[in-house]
């Protein structure tokens, strides 16, 4: 029977290792998940391992790592550039896009961005929970915010950025990915007030940015990010 619980451990995991868990994670396992002694649990960090709970106390818990279950899959990076949103919507964006398979998040401050700072530590915790839930192994990278001009400068020559704009209504993501399957694919999502006129000009002029549509409806930022991520992930699999 597959273990019912699965957690990320921020340390090296090897067969036969005894691991002591304390503080918030111990509280979560003991009080929330109701883990018991001799129960099997999955732990992961770069690879996934089967472990057994060998001791449970009021505020601590000990694991014995048994054997490796699987290694992380090697796959192309899938990055999303997005305009920071309000706290709860930022967290929703990170959670759902991580579940889908985005592994790099880069906030970009644009002219119509209302909130420029993001809580990286909090968003990383959200991403870890999403990875635990979705059965993945690799924790995504979440970077500090950069401005739009720096975003333009850092685009790699082997990277194609799909900018989801309201203005474009005839270029679809599957077509773009199919034509650029050998390159790294990234997604660009604008702020609630859409890209500014100057930003749209820079998007249109850049050789490595291609505009795409997500359909006729105008989507909120977090919805657009989730839809675009799902479409990109699915089409990259096909390619």
- Percentage of residues in strands: 25-35%
From the coordinates shown, what is the CATH architecture of the largest domain? Answer: 3-Layer(aba) Sandwich
Shape: elongated
Q: In the CATH scheme, what's the topology name of the largest domain?
A: Alpha/beta knot
Oligomer, anyone? single chain
Main β-sheet description: 7 strands, parallel
| CATH top level assignment of the largest domain | Alpha Beta
Give the number of DSSP strands. 12
What can you see in these coordinates?
With 239 residues, this protein is of the alpha/beta class. It has two domains: 6-71, Hypothetical PUA domain-like, domain 1 (Ribosomal Protein L25, Chain P); 78-238, SPOUT methyltransferase, trefoil knot domain (Alpha/beta knot). Helices cover 33% and strands 27% of the residues. It has seven helices and twelve strands. The protein has helices spanning 23-32, 87-100, 120-134, 148-154, 173-179, 197-205, 221-238, and strands at 6-8, 18-21, 40-44, 47-56, 61-71, 78-82, 104-109, 141-142, 146-147, 159-164, 184-189, 209-212. The strands form two sheets. Strands 6, 7, 8, 9, 10, 11 and 12 form a seven-stranded parallel beta sheet that branches. A five-stranded mixed beta sheet has the order 1-3-4-5-2. A hairpin with a 2-residue loop joins strand 3 (40-44) and strand 4. Helix 2 (87-100) runs parallel beside helix 3 (120-134). The longest helix has 18 residues, at 221-238. It is elongated, with a radius of gyration of 20 Å. The two termini are 35 Å apart. The model has no long low-confidence stretch (mean pLDDT 92).
């Amino acid at each position: 029977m597959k273990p019912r619980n699965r957690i990320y451990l921020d340390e090296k995991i090897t067969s036969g290792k005894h691991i002591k868990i304390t503080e918030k994670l111990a509280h979560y396992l003991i009080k929330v998940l109701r883990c018991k002694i001799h129960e099997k649990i999955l732990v992961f960090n770069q690879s996934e391992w089967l472990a057994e709970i060998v001791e449970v106390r009021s505020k601590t818990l000990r694991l014995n790592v048994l054997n490796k279950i699987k290694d992380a899959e090697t796959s192309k990076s899938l990055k999303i550039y997005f305009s920071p949103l309000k706290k709860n919507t930022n967290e929703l964006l990170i959670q759902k896009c991580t579940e889908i398979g985005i592994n790099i998040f880069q906030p970009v401050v644009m002219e119509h961005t209302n909130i420029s700072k993001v809580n990286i530590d909090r968003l990383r915790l959200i991403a870890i929970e999403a990875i635990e839930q979705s059965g993945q192994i690799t924790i995504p990278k979440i970077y500090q915010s950069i401005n739009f001009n720096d975003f333009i400068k850092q685009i790699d020559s082997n990277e194609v950025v799909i900018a989801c704009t309201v203005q474009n209504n005839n270029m679809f993501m599957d077509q773009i990915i199919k034509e650029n399957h050998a390159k790294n694919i990234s997604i660009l999502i604008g702020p609630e007030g859409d890209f500014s006129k100057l930003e749209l000009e820079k998007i249109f002029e850049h050789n490595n940015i291609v505009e795409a549509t997500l359909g006729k409806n105008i989507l909120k930022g977090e919805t657009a990010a989730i839809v675009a991520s799902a479409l990109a992930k699915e089409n990259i699999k096909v390619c």
